[in-house]
Amino acid sequence: MAKTQYYTATSIDGFIADRDNSLDWLFQAGQSAGKEDRFGAFFAGVGAMAMGAKTYEWVVEHEHLLEEPARWQQWYGLVPCWVFSHRRLPAVPGADLVFACGDVRGVHDEMTAAAGGRNLWLVGGGDLAGQFADQGLLDEILLGVAPVMLGEGTALLPRRLLASQLTLATVGHDERFVYLAYQVTRREGSLPAGRMPPAGEPSSLGVLLVRSTPLIG
Which pTM does this prediction carry? Predict the structure, then answer.
């Protein structure tokens, strides 16, 4: 059965970007063969993906994708990507992109149909993943924990998820990173008590996990 997965890198203290939305701390943590192998195995099962506006803008700017659009397909092939934004954003030429806004449930249905039985990857940011969790649409949280403490920054997933909703499925590590996989107990159809639907565009920066490129996690 296809799963909706939030797969990202995080600091030990639960941030996916520092207070300046920088990922320098992650680059400094370095590469590892184990991380690349894990991402390769993960992405082989992905049939559609989604990211927030700031994540998309960071990728486009940092990797100069408007000038070198072929790099997008080198990393993601023909996997379709939904980009959530209330602003008009430039499209990477040749990339299979759908720009969306509003409630994530309808987009989730579109992604599921496009994925053809494969998994859905929520690239980030954390608030976008949280919106899927609010609607009971998040199945797994997959983390690569870097040996870094940031103290402040962009939260991994700014939602209240209790132990009754999270089951630790696997634990692994290599010479630098720890890998945690949690299964999320779905609560179908409604927002958690006391929470209003998010307003505006998802703003958290998501960390891309890409093999052998600067976009690592």
Answer: 0.86
